[in-house]
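Lab notebook: predicted structure, single chain.

Context: the supervisor wants predicted structures on file for every construct in the current expression panel, including those that have not yet been purified. This is the next one on the list. No modifications to the sequence; it matches the entry in the shared construct table.
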Amino acid sequence: GYNNLLSKYIDVELCGHKTTLLRELLFPLTLICICCFLIPHCFAAISLDAQTVRHGFPYQPSSMAHDPVQKILAIGTQSGALRLFGRPGVECYCQHESGAAVISLQFLINEGALVSALADDSVHLWNLRQRRPAILHSLKFNRERITFVHLPFQSKWLYIGTEKGNIHIVNVESFTLSGYVIMWNKAIELSSKAHPGPVVHISDNPMDEGKLIIGYEAGIVVLWDLKSKKADYRYTYDEAIHSVAWHHEGKQFICSHSDGTLTIWNIKGQGKPFQTITPHGKQPKDGKKPEPCKPILKVEYKTTRLGDPFMILSGGLSYDTVGRRPCLTVMHGKSTAVLEMDYPIVDFLTLCETPYSNDFQEPYAVVVLLEKDLVVIDLAQNGYPIFENPYPLTIHESPVTCCEYFADCPVDLIPALYSVGSRQKRQGYSKKEWPISGGNWGLGTQSYPEIIITGHADGTVKFWDASAIMLQVLYKLKTAKVFEKSRNNKEDKQNTEIVDEDPFAIQIMAWCPESRMLCVAGVSANLIIYRFSKQEITTEVLLEVRLQYEVNDMESPPEGGGGGDRDLPTPGAASPSPQTTGPPTHPSTSSNSSDGVRDNVPCLKVRSTPLKQSSGYQVELVVQLVWVSGEPPQQITSLALNSSYGLIVFGNSNGLAVVDYLQKTVLLNLGTVELYGSNDPYQRQARSPRKARQPAGGNGKDLYHFTDLPPHRYMLELCVFSTCVRVLYLSVLSSTVLLSVCPPRGANPLDHRDNSFSRSRSSSVTSIDKEAREAITSFHFCETFARKGDSAITPCLYVGTSLGTVLAVALNLPPAGEQRLLQPVIVLPSGTLARLKGSILRMAFLDNTGTFLPPAFETWYEPNAAGADSEERDKARKRRPVSVSPSTSQELQESQYAVVCSEKQAKVIALPSQNCIFKHSITETSFVLRADVVQMNIGNCVACFCANGHIMTLSLPGLRPLLDVNYLPLTDMRIARTFCFTNLGQAMYLTSPTEIQRITYSQETCENLQEMLGELFTPVETPEAPNRGFFKGLFGGGATSLDREELFGETQAGKASRGLAQHIPGPQGLEGMKGAASGVVADLARARIALDERGQKLGELDERTAAMLASADSFGKHAHDMMLKCKDKKWYQF
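Prediction complete. Output recorded below exactly as produced.
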């Protein structure tokens, strides 16, 4: 782009090499040098280590465990993930490499370790004493399938039950198998011919560690004596067993069965259960057996010192309760409480005051793991209220449809959102503190505010505080309450025909953090603009401001003609009487016109009753696309908001519309083809429009007419083309209004990209079908040069299309203050800036120093202020909007640089000359899904996420590759729809329907990440064991211990079968910890590890030296004794 520059040459020295360059090349080359030598050090290779944190509910949970001393909770999932929770803000995510489902979890209580058993028959030992837990040992079973795992408190011997009915014992310190095996055929009756089934339960007697109870699926329970290696008692029931629980005295146990019954057994009972209970079964009067119920999947039996015991169970409902939600039953004394859950129960645990099973448990809460929620129930209060969950587990409360990520927000924004969001909290929660309170927060120094916004299928928008790798909900906005709820009649279903379900789902969001203006676009082709206020208001009526146009058939243009003249008449000129030509004051909402075709009907109906708007985001304006001659409106594909200009622009597969939300008018409503004017490079001919209906009150011969509106309030734009004439009707009825926008005609809807990623991404523009389907894909407001060769910057709107074209639209804004509300805004298309391969995804602007130029914005003010606050509001309105555009008196020839990124390539264009100075092909075999211009600590870059899973960054303005990592293969549309970059090297995406994954490509964040992560393990003293008492000690009562080391050790039990399981050492220990940390903490850890290793080696050396010294002393003593013995002997005496 500099071949035509005629400037003198200058000598420069670059990295020790002298060369001669054009003067105009010096500035871009300097920036390239900065990008080459400085910016790469800001980027970290993206890998699993670059995944900062994962938020949300664990997707498809399968198991759960709790450490009652450390007070931390672990949840395993069907995909092999492991989520650990401590106090609010302390979370951790781990992943098993195999991806197999986690079937069981067991804490080494107060030891900082966790055992996980997977569906691929592997067992793993996790070290929780480091900020990022990792596997210490693994054991892979080859011959048997694992079904149950049990680890007694303060024991290092792990019991593993298998599908064959055998029980193996593993030493958790060395993760080696013991030779002690309990075979199924020795456990059951010798006379039994049937296999007892898989092991479903293992636990030791609370009062005798030498007695082990084993539950088999077929209904057999065995009390096994570990010392004598034989079964003491066997208990048989004719229904399958699902779980077993002990009474703390060790004299009774309870079983849950598949027919909905509970059986209580005495350990010395003979044949029959002591008691049989059917909690939800109807008791027949004739004394017969109750009707069978659904299986009781789990039961827990917990005792209290001063009251009745608790029996807590899941399942067991009667079969006649069809459609009833899953329930947890709490039986306490004579009372039975049935607690309904929103989702099926996966598992539950009872939290108790003591970790010892041989003492009164004193239960105080129940943790219930549901398929899509985590509920904690307070057992100590009447009515069993639930605790308010402090974790960010409600991301999926309604499916996430879109999200945005903002870093380095204004510092007052999070407190403002929190203050209005705190008033939305529900009541009726338990008054106690959250019981899972283990771990410590991180001590990171990253303190800039971060906000994540999620849009949902039910029309809600949630704001989340994402600062310092934490996540907390701030505020929840319900957009659906603006509309009337549809009645289940045929007419309403026809109106919302463009969407099968979730008509209020959020599709796109645009947010200005500085002004706090928000705009959301829904799938029903609707747009809602919100303004933030701390005061509550009530909107009396929501009525319509309607925009219509009529299309008349005219002759097709001659070949090569692309359009006609465009002029802006004076408002009110040539206006006939409003009584004869104006639209009705209250527009009809009928879905059909006189000829039976739906016309001028929106997909949703706005509420006509008074709407109470609480503090927070309040409706400013509603815009809807409407049906036209039986054709439904196309969904909105792109959206942009500018608070400084007071404008909203949105586009779809047909064209775009610019709306002035301050004056509540539509400034521009054009098809994509019409944006080109006579400069259309594809020489497309407009499709023949349908014959229009006669305008109201007209004779059919008038080409256009206007309603009589005050000229100082609105501007009406007449768009005259050689093919059609559009007539706009506007009628103002309220300060809070609805704009109904008729979409431009003459284009087919864009094919849905969500269906497949195998679509062709050809950049060819020869296809007539593709040309006819040119959609609007992106917008960017800026203050720049509207046309080539301009000498002054003006407010502009840049438009990107699906064919790779960037078009400029000039904006002529009135002065700020009252004039802005009275004078019209002039909008005028200004030609084409550039063309790229693929759809345009992102546009941005840099000044002549390479500094990013954000769009102008207006600072926030209270819109509902009164009195003194009202004066402040008026002053804020009269202030000029904040703009960081450079002054117009730039001495350099090129004052700005436009950055444009498409699905295939990126370009940097110098302005106002519009010369392309840098160009880079991002991908040839794939296409870019998301691209953003992000600001790093020492520069700017273009960040791209491709459909092939690559994450790339390019320097600015040189477009040199800085990072290219194959991070994540694209497996579903969710990732593509939700992936987004933000400033300072942060990014996020929805890794599952319930979880947000945050990643970083910033080296600085990676170095500080170790300090920012919370600690799961904290030094806590183990509670004292229960006192046996004088009489129990005197007469031999109380708990008896067992020397498991002697019983299960290799000396007595022998070695295990060599091919039964394979031991896999983990990467941890001193060697594995070297790579587990980073930053300052990592350096200290590595230094400490090196000192430990050196000390260990020196200690070993000292021991060897001492051994050698002792050996030398012994040798010297023996030699001296020999010398004394032989001193007086003659030679012949030897």
